[in-house]
Design goal:
Blueprint lengths: L25 E5 L11 E5 L18 H7 L7 E6 L10 H14 L2 E10 L4 H10 L6 E4 L12
Parallel strand pairs: 2-3, 2-4, 4-5
Antiparallel strand pairs: 1-3
């Protein structure tokens, strides 16, 4: 190996590699009353469920949070996407899926990209922070919430 010294020890380099990966998940999508009628853009909330709702049965996602409230007949003035994490992994292991889903929803629905919300629950701050970083340049907002539509004890 060639010996280097002085200013040659550090130099500018560029790394580039194409990576292709297929991602996907099941999710619930709520569109507000009047969606598509007025030609307007709507706020978007992405709600990440807790550990007990993982799997492949979307009915589990309706146990807590906004999906539960929608099931009970509550109307909202925004789009809600509630993805389901498969059994086994957890949200931090599915960040690429969440980012791809968010991109998909923003591209295929009338989303106001200046009003994208991600409620933060007890175990999702890392995921929320990473999603926010991925949205650098957008105005994706996060709010810390406890028990959005949760059952007793504020767990949701």
């Amino acid at each position: 190996m060639k010996k280097v010294s002085g200013s040659l020890r550090q130099s500018d380099k560029v790394f580039e590699k194409k990576i292709t990966k297929k991602v996907g998940c099941k999710y619930l999508l709520y569109l507000p009353e009047g969606y598509g009628e007025r030609g307007k853009k709507w706020p978007l909330m992405m709600f990440l469920h807790g550990a007990g709702e993982r799997g492949d049965n979307l009915e589990l996602v309706k146990k807590h949070g906004p999906a539960k409230l929608v099931k009970q007949g509550k109307d909202f003035e925004f789009i809600i996407v509630s993805p389901q994490c498969p059994e086994g992994p957890w949200w931090p292991e599915k960040l690429d899926t969440l980012i791809a889903l968010l991109d998909y929803i923003e591209s295929n629905y009338e989303v106001d990209t200046d009003r994208v919300y991600l409620p933060i629950r007890a175990k999702t701050p890392f995921v929320a922070s990473t999603l926010l970083i991925s949205r650098a340049g957008s105005r994706c907002l996060h709010k810390h919430v406890r028990g959005v539509g949760a059952g007793e004890g504020g767990r949701g």
